[in-house]
Amino acid sequence: MPVAELAPAKINLALHVTGQRPDGYHLIESIVTFADIGDHLTFSLADEDRLSLSGPFAPAITGGPDNLVARARDGLRGLLQARGVEAPAVAIHLEKNLPVASGIGGGSADAAATLRGLLRLWSAGSISIDEIEALALSIGADVPMCMAGRPLIASGIGEKLSPLTGMPRFTMVLGNPLRGVSTPEVFSRLASRQNTGLVLNDPRNWMSILNASRNDLERAASDLVPEIGELCELLRSRGAVLTRMSGSGATCFGIFDSRRSADHAASMLQAERPDWYFASTETIAGS
């Protein structure tokens, strides 16, 4: 039977850049959660490996060997074959619903969903959690947190994960001006790489925590894509109680008081800016 996986949008509710390693990787502390929307992947056994694409943002990517889905497939197969475990050819279909290079973990989420799906399809119980986590990190710094798929604090270069069991759901609108942002270029424009870390001063009041935090990449990304500031202002004008950029951009989120108000805001914003991406969503709660 085919296996299906959702690759949910990753939302950086806060992202503090706290240092830089000698190898160039930046150190972060980030509050991460996941939305109930995302890309969809299906996996089925086949006579040869295939990666097919559909969805509104499929034209922006290719199905070649550099696709993170293909890299995850090939990496997991290598681990299995090294143990003499069969990893037969697989047909993968990726429905690309999230904007590309948008700061919500699209490619990383797809890679994580591929690892989860193929572990099920190939019945790969012989691979340890440590090996899977190492493989995920080798594909990309965001892939381990996308593998976790739950509210957490990510630190280090993104590989150190601490679950947030008390985080509530957030109703929000995601918006993107459909301009891709280069993560390395955003980091290269940082005014400071030595900033204060997160302070979880009152875990019973998450809005207070979020209001006291920030995204240290937002100003640098806004220099590259001025529409980020306009997007946040549009979200505020439609009733968002908090707006911020996610990841390295250009996707921004606005937190709303109710799903009804978020749905209405997303509809109005899409009508106002039909050339941009808007979607209402609800994040998952920590458990």
UniProtKB/TrEMBL annotation:
Keyword field: ATP-binding, Isoprene biosynthesis, Kinase, Nucleotide-binding, Transferase
Lineage: superkingdom: Bacteria
First and last residue of the signal peptide: none
UniProt-recorded Gene Ontology molecular function terms: 4-(cytidine 5'-diphospho)-2-C-methyl-D-erythritol kinase activity; ATP binding
Catalysed reactions listed for this entry: 4-CDP-2-C-methyl-D-erythritol + ATP = 4-CDP-2-C-methyl-D-erythritol 2-phosphate + ADP + H(+)
Binding residue positions for ATP: P99, V100, A101, S102, G103, I104, G105, G106, G107, S108, A109
Role this protein plays: Catalyzes the phosphorylation of the position 2 hydroxy group of 4-diphosphocytidyl-2C-methyl-D-erythritol.
PANTHER family per the UniProt record, alphabetical: 4-DIPHOSPHOCYTIDYL-2-C-METHYL-D-ERYTHRITOL KINASE, CHLOROPLASTIC
Name assigned to this protein: 4-diphosphocytidyl-2-C-methyl-D-erythritol kinase
Organism: Pseudorhizobium flavum
Source organism phylogeny: Bacteria, Pseudomonadati, Pseudomonadota, Alphaproteobacteria, Hyphomicrobiales
Primary gene name: ispE
